[in-house]
Amino acid sequence: MSDDTIRLVTIGRMLRRRRRLLAVLVVVGALVGYGVSLLFPPRYTASASVLLPGQWEERELLTQAEVATSSAVVDRAAAALRLPGVDGRELRDRVSAKAADGNIIKISGTDESPERAQRLSDQVAQQFVAYAARIAGGGAGTGATAPETLREQVAETNRRISELAASADPGQTVESVQARTELEQLRTALQEAVQKLDETESANHRAGMVVMGPAARPTGEAPPTRVQLVGGGALLFLVLAVVGHLAAARVDRRPRGEAEIAAVLGSALLGTVDVAHERAAHRVKARGARARTRRILGTDTRWDLPDPRTPGTEADAGVRYRRVCARLRDRQPAPRRLLVVVPDGDETARRAAGRLVTEAQGDPLLRVAPVSVSRPMVPDRDTESGALVVLSAGSWTAEELTGIGEACADGGHEVVGVVVAGTVRTRPARSAGRPPAGRPAADANAADADAANADTDGDADAADAKAAGPTTADAVRGRVTGGSV
Questions:
Q1: Which residues form a coiled coil (predicted)?
Q2: CA triplet 361, 365, 368: central angle to 5 degrees?
């Protein structure tokens, strides 16, 4: 999985196999969110609107919004409210302003009670209007820009232009050119004066800002509310758990392919065999309070293992085991005695090794030896001519497999082959006289005939083993009943 793309089916399998752990983490996240809500008291936000008459550009409205939250306005509001222990600097963190549509500045105040939030927003709006009017009135009082002075300047300029126009010489003399130049300069001065007059009148008109009524008293808490904190904590813990599981699976370097496992052990792959799926086969064998906790949370089983494959017939499963035994006979000279090495805790491999001993029927003679992966120790070589490693895919790291191979070498055993066991779903057996739906009767009869031939072959192998002598049969029976499997 470390090199594969994470798909929705992987996330679905993780949610299904880790649902109890995820449910516990969601509850913990909700409790954390509730605890955070207790540390921060609820806050309420009220808003007051100020109308700006006239025509305003967008950048001018943004400037007025900045003026509404400036220290000059907020400090005056703090002095008027006289809140105990609250100064203008702290109040600026509770006040905000933004430009809305229709030349409206919306001023919002936040406090721990609805009444104080309403008073705060109303007071800041009033102080903003008063401050804007004071600025506009002070600017209009300058003599050079007063409307009366500008109008006198316009009238004087018009008279001077008329005089110059009457005395100007239409010729190309120096005096006539100078007169016309002075005339153009005066016309420019007249235009500037008229423009200043218009700007002054517009500023006087803009100074009439109006507070559009008192702020409405808030009825609900300002975000984030307690419900939002509880839900956010639960969602955050769920997302972190999912991401953590996927990240751990992404960096997992366990060999999963049959060829990769055989390459790590330095031997050849003899085949893959099927074992009926059992949930207990993937559980971690441990005891104690920690093991019980893991069993309750569902973390005692691997979630990243693929789902069991669709099963074939029992005859097909037997054929796989017999083919592995046949390959062992071809690779090993007589007498064929092998040590079957199974990682301790790999229940799937243990069951596969047990059936492999049964299917071999003494040829080759197999002896099962569980080996701890933490401290691998293989029995010394006695009468065996090699070791056969049986394990399940995706359960062990490359270092653990290398340790098993080195333990076999230390015990004097050569790894002659690797068998990978996989799980399949079990399905109820059908009645012999009724073929599956949609399957022709001829195909059903053919399948029944194949199964009968497989059983006949099994009986023939058993007869051959019996004819080989009582020593071999007794040895096989002793291996199975003696607890080696």
A1: 176-203
A2: 105
Contacts of 434 (CB under 8 A, 6+ apart): none
Q: What is the CB neighbour count within 10 angstroms for residue 365?
A: 19
Ranking 44-48, 356-360, 366-370, 474-478 by mean pLDDT, the lowest is: 474-478
**How many other CB atoms are found less than 10 A from the CB of residue 108?**
20
Range list of H helices, 251-306: 258-265, 289-297
The token duo for 15 is: 């949610």
What is the tens place of the pLDDT at every residue in 182-214? 777 777 777 777 777 666 665 555 557 889 889
List of residues 6+ apart from 213 with CB closer than 8 A? 48, 49
Q: Which two tokens stand for residue 101?
A: 């549509």
Spatial distance between the Cα atoms of 21 and 8, rounded to a whole number of angstroms: 19
CA distance 346 to 283: 9
Element (H, E) at 443: helix 441-467
Task: Sketch out the chain's domains with CATH numbers.
Answer: 8-40+223-250 (no CATH), 43-220 (3.30.1890), 258-481 (no CATH)
* DSSP at 298: T
Partners of 338 in the beta sheet? 366
Under a CB-based contact definition with an 8 Å cutoff, are residues 132 and 209 in contact?
yes
Backbone dihedral region of 236: left (phi > 0), alpha (psi from -120 to 50 degrees) or beta?
alpha
Q: Tokens 């904190």 identify what position?
A: 229
Q: Express each pLDDT in 347-369 by its tens digit.
A: 889 999 999 999 998 888 999 99
